[in-house]
Amino acid sequence: MMLKKRDVGRYLQPNVHIFYLMKYKRFLLNLVSVLLLLILVENAFASQSDTSAIKFGDLQWQTIRINNAIAMFIIEHGYGYPVESVMLSTPVMQASLPKGDIDVSMEMWRYNIIDWYNEVISKGTVLDLGTLFETATEGWYVPRYVVEGDAERGIMPMAPDLVSVFDLPKYKSLFKDPENPDKGLFLNAIMGWKASEISRVKLHAYGLADDFNIMEPGTTPALDTAIVSAYKKGQPILAYYWEPTWLMGGYDMIQLKEPEHTKACWAQIQKILDNDLPLSKVTQKAGCAFPNYAITKGVYAGLKERAPEIVAFLEKMNVGTVPLNKTAAYMEKEEVEAEQAARWFFENYPDKWRSWLPENIVVRVEKTLAQPELEKDSHQLSDYYNFPTFIKIPLAQWTDDLVKWLIEEWDEAFEVIGNILLRPLLLLERLLVGIPWFLIIIAITVIAWRWGGWQLSFWSVGGLLLIGMLGLWVPAMSTLAIVIAATLLAVFIGVPVGIAMSQSDWFERMTRPMLDMMQTMPSFVYLIPTLMLFGLGKVPALISTVVYAIPPVTRFTNLGIRQVPTQMLEAGHAFGSTTGQLLFKVQLPLAMPTIMAGVNQTVMMALSMVVICSMIGAGGLGNEVLIGINQLKVGRGFTGGIAIVILAIIIDRLTQAFVTKQQQTLKKG
Questions:
Q1: pTM of full prediction above 0.85
Q2: CA distances from 265 to 261, 269, 270, 285 (A)
Q3: Of 417, 476, 490, the residue nearest 610 (C-alpha)
Q4: Using one digit for the tens of pLDDT, what is the confidence trace for 416-456?
Q5: 613 Cβ neighbours under 8 A, 6+ residues apart
Q6: Which of 286, 321, 345 is the C-terminal boundary of a domain?
């Protein structure tokens, strides 16, 4: 293949780099040695300073951050202990607190983790230090405008008679499930939470199972985003939630009435959760409200010996439901951090927090509060080393404003786009799930044999049979449907863009940074705007997957066409071929193996989004992994992971075999 002048530099550049590396090898080795020494020294000092720090678990919701900030301020400035906040999830907290990897979990919603709670309390590895606030409420909520309307926003009442859960059958069409319009949709608690299992039981007990489908988000932010998005659009939504929280303080929601909570009802629910009674046998006896209970504080048992005065303080600490609600409302309204909200609490409830502390500690805390800002750590660098705060690009605010504008002005357009994408995706999923399993295995066997021979055929059949024997055939087909749909859409968009890049150096230079951003941006970032614009479900999962998976097929299409030998193009020109004829009859056929290699990478990247997309209601094999994580069920998570790996290997080997077959065909031609 002849090199163009512009390509010579690309091939020579690595050799130039190697020359300079060899020339300055000793200098680079010395520099690396110094850097390693500095890192070791820093780690030594860090480990020395952090060993005594009292670590608080940040479970990533607003009220726990407020309570953490209040307690950490008092411990640091009153008692003189260093403190640290560790961001983690509920399952990680459950694994970390009994071992002392974190010291304090300020909010123990024990009914959602009751099995773990009973185990660690009985073993004595975790201490329950009593009430933090008196009342925690869980239930099923709808926005107030659904029942009463909102004159200010021009919203008429949609369900004026909706008072209790028993009124829901009349309004199932109001809460329509986009994936099954004949039923309503109930947005359940987080996948794997005990509350989600209880809500499933209650849905049957209230006779709603035939009228409503359930969707379970994988994370609290996904649930929050779905509710907030619907609220801002003025759309009806039926969801599980709890309070006190910032969302309940910031958005006007109504809790639907349920039969009063009783021990007999809860015992009936527990029988079903323990598999002593099948879900099909549920009666109205298992239908009642969640219990209202106090939220308590939990600490690692070893903290009592290490810092008994801190444990004594935390035992007395009781923020209260009303003060916590007001502090959370202040934090949301003023858009401040938890540390500023904690200061607001200190200023507005002085008698409450002073009652927790000895007089000498009160004096120290008040002395620090009298200062305009928190004292800086002694090891913090001078402000001369910090970037000037007045030079700031408000990119976050611009992005929020853009999404808000899109929701307000283009909501109907996004709904149409969502429906257009959803219908073929559901059709494909129902096709894969509806076809008998053995027919799919036979089809894969034939394809594998034609492309890769009997060995590939044998291992593909074995892998698919193993997925079926693991009991994950239907989730695997749901996952495969999303992967196929995302790949087709990515190819439909990516190949034309790659062709355009190959025909124009200017367009390539403009497009490459966008592809770099799409490929390196954390995949979670895609979920935020797609959730706001399309809500929970398969559509935002599909769009997020496509955005993440487009770059490989686009890059490889561009690369494949540019690598077509110049002699072939010159021959085409000599025979009078037009630009279009050269593209479709010379360049694309010769570039096809490279393009298919890009398709292979696109498929793999689409499959890598499986678990992430399950967090926003995509379903499939990702649900198995997510439930395993949220419930600390290693076996279930591992089984789901194995099924994903098997599916990935089969798809990878099939696409590679197809590429190899294409290359062999070209060589023969």
A1: no
A2: 7, 6, 9, 6
A3: 476
A4: 888 888 889 889 988 998 899 999 999 999 998 988 888 88
A5: 482, 541, 544, 545, 620, 622
A6: 286
